C-alpha cells in the first residue's frame, strides 16, 4: 500500500500536520493572550500603586481622590474583562490543565493585590464612599449550584452601585493566601461574600440582601 | 486526560483517512467517473426476489424491460417468497418473465435470490431488489468492466432514493450520495465491500464459486462481497450508473432497516475476522476492513460516549440556570448568556476538533454531489445542515445500540 499510494499518503500526512499545527496555535493563542493580559494588568496595577505611593509620600495633591477615580475605573474594567476570560477558559478547558492553572493562579494573585490596593485607597479617600465585596466561588462540578445566581446578583448590584468593587476568588484554587482569607473571614461554603472586609455571609445573597448589608 | 487523548487519536484517524481519500480521488479524478465502453453484449438473466411488493413489482419489471441493451429480451426470473398480498396475481399478468413461488415464506431475501440463481439461464446475472428502478443506460455503463478483467466478479451501481419527499427520504439521499462516492473510491483500493441489493451484475461463476448468498446473514450483500474479495476476486463500481430505490419513508422503518444493516455488518465482521489485517487481501485486508468495520466502530463509540457526557453536563448546567432563576425571583437573561463576547474563548476542545471535521465533511459532500446525477440545490440547505449536524449522530447512536444488541445476543429480525 505504501508504495502504491505514496502520493496520497504523503498529502494526507502533510494536511494532517498542517491541521494539528493550526489547532495547537489556536489553543496556545488563548493561553498566551490571556497570560499577556494578566501581565498588562500587573503593569497597570504597579503604575497605580506608584501613584498612591506618590500621594502618601508628598500629601500634596488635595484632589487626589477625584483624579484617581477614572484610573480605578479603568483598572477594574480591565480586571473584570480578564476575569470573564479566565472564567470562560475554566468552562471549556480541563480543570487540571497546567497552563490554565498557571493563569488562574496569576490572575488570583493580581486580583488579591488589587483588592488590598483598594482597601488602601478606601482609607486614603474616606469621602469617596467606596465599597468592596469579596466573592468566593468554586468551579468544581456540582460544588456550587448557587454560584451562577450569586454572580448575576452581584453584577446587578454593581450596575446599580458604581462605587462598589467586587473581587471574585476561586475558593478551591489551592493557594495558601486564599486559604488564609477563607479562615480569616469564616468562609464555610460557596458562594460566600464579605462586605467591606467586615461582614461575611455564607450562601446565596440576593440583590436586596446585599443592599441591606450595606445599609 | 485519557478521554481527551482518545478523542485526539480518533480525530487524527478520521482526518488522516479523509485526506487520504481526497488525495486518492484527486490522483484519479480524470478517470474517476468514466466507465469502459462494452464491445460485446452477452445475454443477461435478471433475478428479482419479491415479498409483498404489490405496489412496486410492476414498475420494477417495466424498468428492467425498458433498459437499453442490444441483446434483448432479458431472462427475468422473479422468485416470490410466499407473498400474502396481491403480488402473485400481478406477476401472473406480467408478460416476459418467469416466476417461481416458494412454498413457505423464508423471511430472507438470500433464499429467494439463491432460488433465482438456480433458474437463471445465462452467464451474467443481474441481481435486483423488487422496489428498485434502474436508469435506462445502466447496463451500458456497467457491462464494460467485465471485459477489462476476467477477475472482476461483480459490478455495482450507484443507488439513490426514488422520489424522496419527506425529511427522512431526503436525508437518505444525502447519505446515499455520500456512500456512492466512497464506494467508488474503495474500488480504487480493490476494497468494494458490498454488492448492493438494488442492482449488481455478477458473473454466474462468481455465484457458483462462492455458493451464492448466505441465508443466515442479515446483510447478505456485504457477506457475499467479503466472500468474493476473500477469494482474491474484484468488485467494480460504475458511479454514473444509477438505480433508484424505495427508501424507508418513516423513522420506524428506517430504524428497522438500519438495525438489520448494522447488526449484519457486525455479524460479517465476526464471520470474516480471520481476514482482518490479512496482507494477502491487500488494501481491503490491511486497511478498509479494519478501518470501516472495526476502527470506525471504536471511534463512533468514543465520539458518542463523549457527546453523551457533554449533553448530560449541558443538561445539568441548564438545571443550575433554572435553579438560579428561582433563587433570583426574576427572569434574568444573564443567567443563560455566555460569560464574554470573545467567542474564540468559548471553543471547547471538541469544538476545535469539530469545526475542521465539519469543514472536511462539507467539502467531501460537495465533491460527492459533484459526481451525483442529483445536484445540490439551494432549497437543500436545511437538509444539508440536518445531515451534517444530526444524521451522523443519530446513526452513531443506532450503531452503538445495534452493537449492544449483538453483545447481548438479542434475537435478530430480518
Strand order, sheet with most strands of chain A: 2-1-3-4
What spatial form of chain B do the alpha-carbon principal axes imply? globular
Q: What's the helical proportion of residues of chain A?
A: 55-70%
Number of strands of chain B: 8
Q: Describe the strand arrangement of the main beta sheet of chain B, using strand numbers.
A: 3-2-1-4-7-6-8-5
Uncertain runs of chain B are none
- Tell me, briefly, the overall form of chain A: globular
Tell me what the structure shows.
The complex is a heterodimer of chains A (215) and B (414). The longest helix of chain A is centred in the first third of the chain and has 53 residues, at 6-58. Chain A starts with 5 loop residues before the first helix and ends with a helix. Chain A has 215 residues and is α+β, with helices and mostly antiparallel strands. Helices cover 66% and strands 10% of the residues of chain A. Chain B has 12 helices and 8 strands. Chain B starts with a helix and ends in a 7-residue tail after the last helix. Chain B is globular, with a radius of gyration of 24 Å. Chain A binds chain B through residues 1, 5, 7-9, 11-13, 15-16, 19-20, 22-23, 26-27, 29-30, 81, 84-85, 87-89, 91-94, 96, 141-142, 145-146, 148-149, 152-153, 155-156, 204, 206, and chain B through 1, 4, 12, 15-17, 19-20, 22-24, 26-27, 282-283, 286-287, 313, 316, 320-321, 323-325, 327-329, 332, 334-335, 338-340, 342, 344-349, 351-353, 356.
Could you provide a short overview of the structure?
Chain A is α+β, with helices and mostly antiparallel strands. Chain A is 66% helix and 10% strand. Chain A has six helices and four strands; from the N terminus they run H-H-H-E-H-E-H-E-E-H.
Layout: helices, strands, pairs:
The complex is a heterodimer of chains A (215) and B (414).
Chain A: H1 6-58, H2 64-92, H3 98-124, E1 131-137, H4 147-160, E2 164-170, H5 176-185, E3 192-195, E4 199-202, H6 207-214
Parallel strand pairs in A: 1-2
Antiparallel strand pairs in A: 1-3, 3-4
Helix pairs in contact in A: 1-2, 1-3, 2-3
Chain B: H1 2-27, E1 44-50, H2 57-65, E2 75-80, H3 87-93, E3 98-101, H4 109-119, E4 124-128, E5 132-134, H5 138-148, E6 152-161, H6 167-188, E7 199-203, H7 204-210, H8 220-230, E8 234-245, H9 251-271, H10 282-328, H11 349-370, H12 381-407
Helix pairs in contact in B: 1-10, 1-11, 6-11, 6-12, 9-12, 10-12
